[in-house]
Amino acid sequence: MSKLLRVVQVTDCHLQEAPDKVFKGCLPEERLCKVLEDMVGRNLQPDLLLLTGDLVHHGYPQGYQRLAEHVQKVATEIRWLPGNHDDARHMSVFSELNLLQWRKHDWCVVSLDSTSSPDGKGSGSLGECELQRLEAILQAPPSKYLLIALHHPPVHVGSPWQDAICLGDKDAFWRILEDSKSSAAKLIVCGHLHQDHEVYNLPLPLLVTPATAPQFKKAMLQPVLETDEYLSLPGYRVIDLFESGEFSTQVVRVVI
Question: Which ranges in 42-106 belong to alpha helices (H)?
Answer without folding.
Answer: 61-71, 88-91
